[in-house]
Amino acid sequence: MRTRHVERHRTERIGWLRAAVLGADDGIVSTASLVVGVAASHATRGNILVAGVAGLVAGAMSMAAGEYVSVHSQADTEAADFEREREELRTDYKSEVKELTKIYTDRGIEPSLALQVAEQLMAHDALGAHARDELGISETLSARPIQAALASAGSFAVGALLPLLVTAFAPSAGLIPLVSATSLVSLAALGGVAAHAGGAGVGAGALRVTFWGALAMLSTAGVGALFGRVI
Ligand SMILES: [Zn+2]
Fold this sequence. Notes:
- This protein is an all-alpha fold.
- It contains seven helices and no strands.
- The chain has a domain at 10-80 and 148-230.
């Protein structure tokens, strides 16, 4: 019993950790690429920082908006399922008892015991029992759009801060290599942490995100250098 309880909490923690790491990855990649691209066009440090801060705010807001909308639609679906379940319990309680009994029997409980359990749980909290065991919705797992939006925006902003801090303090001549190097090292570390948390290979996880980060920075550096020459 103790192991299963700990395991479930660990799974929830991993979920949050991975979302935070992915948000931070996004923040690092998009802001570092922006900074490297603008710097490659020979902009002043002031302009690079303005572009970087605008990128941080825009990215954090779009992450929050995207997360809020997607989690909110999940919350809407859950609320609709709840309403339908409440109606079914009101109009056809007997069938709902049969349904829950079947769920427990399918899970291996002896039929007469399954019926007893279903009846007692429904007598105690019929909607809660059906939500948890039929719909798979529990209090801890229910959709929380605001928390999800804030967590997503926050992790993006934290990730974006790194290349911005390097931009603010790096010597002008070394700005592009320093922003690129510190961002790639952080991406590798975050990629490794996320892979480890998910039980996957640390090396592969680190390599994957570093490769895409490098590709993004190379692309924006190319675009920036091109525009810097033309404009
Ligand atoms: Zn039901």
